[in-house]
């Protein structure tokens, strides 16, 4: 039984992991658009392995390039994050219910009940919740900004491997990342502490890129300009 729990945890973490390019960062948002610079980041060759916080399946997750400059009126800033949070809120209760089923219900069945009947009841409850979550997602498909094809793909994964259902809200929100501008987001997002933390993550990533840039070249100039912007962001937020 411990092997079963360990396997489920590994499948869940594997499904939620992101491989970020050198100019990308990942962040979550709380209600109201506040940024959350959490998770675990590990070096993996020329990529960064990002593991979101395991208990935050109800928070939208985004991956954005720090190279992009804010464009006036592009709608890719903090206001858009708040609108997206409102749209994704229909999935929050179901994501939390799935988390309770996996984090509390399954261990209780394995270590307390210790019967096959209890596991069957848990499995039935889990699949009912997954089907309900998918039904809500399909009902609000346009509001969530996903296509039928994308949802059918997510549904297939969730039904074939139930731990993948925990990342449903994250996967849907990740699809909206391309419409966000990190500079605009950080300039208008509430939550100074998280903004500073995210700005420092970006500064470290830019510093790594600078070590490979040709001295005096256009690439170095662009990187230093970006670094100055995020240094100012960290200073103002702090």
Task: Describe the 3D structure.
It is a single chain. Helix content is 60%, strand content 11%. The protein has ten helices and six strands, in the order H-E-E-E-E-E-E-H-H-H-H-H-H-H-H-H. Strands 1-5-4 form a three-stranded antiparallel β-sheet, covered by helices on one side. Strands 3-2-6 form a three-stranded antiparallel β-sheet. A hairpin with a 5-residue loop joins strand 2 (24-29) and strand 3. The longest helix is centred in the middle third of the chain and has 24 residues, at 116-139. The chain starts with a helix and ends with a helix. The mean pLDDT is 86.
The arrangement of helices and strands along the chain is HEEEEEEHHHHHHHHH
Largest sheet: 3 strands, antiparallel
Number of domains: 1
Distance between the termini: 47 Å
**Which stretches of 5+ consecutive residues score pLDDT under 50?**
none
Number of strands: 6
Number of helices: 10
Name the beta content range. Answer: 5-15%
Name the structural class.
Answer: mainly alpha
Q: In one word, what is the shape? A: elongated
Characteristics of this structure?
single chain, 238 residues, mainly alpha, 3-stranded antiparallel sheet, 10 helices, 6 strands, elongated
Topology of this protein?
Layout: H1 2-16, E1 18-20, E2 24-29, E3 35-36, E4 40-44, E5 47-51, E6 61-65, H2 78-88, H3 92-113, H4 116-139, H5 141-144, H6 148-160, H7 168-174, H8 182-188, H9 192-210, H10 218-237
Antiparallel strand pairs: 1-5, 2-3, 2-6, 4-5
Helix pairs in contact: 2-8, 3-4, 4-6, 9-10
Brief write-up:
This protein is mostly helical and about 240 residues long. The protein has helices at about 1-15, 80-90, 90-115, 115-140, 140-145, 150-160, 170-175, 180-190, 190-210, 220-235; strands at about 20, 25-30, 35, 40-45, 45-50, 60-65.
């Amino acid at each position: 039984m411990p092997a079963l729990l360990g396997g489920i945890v590994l499948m869940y973490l594997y499904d939620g992991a992101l491989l970020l390019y050198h100019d990308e960062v990942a962040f979550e948002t709380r209600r109201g658009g506040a940024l959350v610079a959490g998770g675990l980041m590990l070096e993996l060759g020329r990529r960064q392995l990002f593991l979101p916080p395991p208990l935050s399946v109800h928070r939208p997750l985004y991956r954005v390039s720090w190279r992009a400059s804010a464009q006036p009126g592009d709608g890719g800033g903090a206001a858009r994050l708040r609108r997206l949070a409102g749209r994704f809120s229909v999935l929050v209760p179901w994501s939390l219910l799935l988390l309770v089923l996996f984090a509390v219900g399954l261990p209780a069945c394995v270590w307390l009940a210790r019967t096959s009947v209890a596991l069957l009841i848990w499995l039935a409850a889990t699949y009912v919740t997954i089907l309900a979550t998918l039904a809500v997602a399909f009902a609000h498909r346009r509001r969530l900004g996903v296509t039928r094809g994308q949802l059918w793909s997510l549904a297939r994964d969730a039904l074939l491997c139930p731990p993948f259902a925990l990342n449903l809200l994250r996967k849907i929100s990740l699809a909206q990342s391309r419409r966000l501008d990190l500079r605009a987001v950080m300039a208008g997002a509430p939550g100074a502490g998280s903004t500073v933390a995210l700005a420092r993550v970006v500064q470290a990533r830019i510093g790594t890129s600078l070590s490979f840039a040709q001295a005096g070249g256009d690439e170095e100039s662009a990187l230093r300009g970006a670094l100055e912007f995020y240094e100012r962001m960290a200073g103002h937020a702090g």
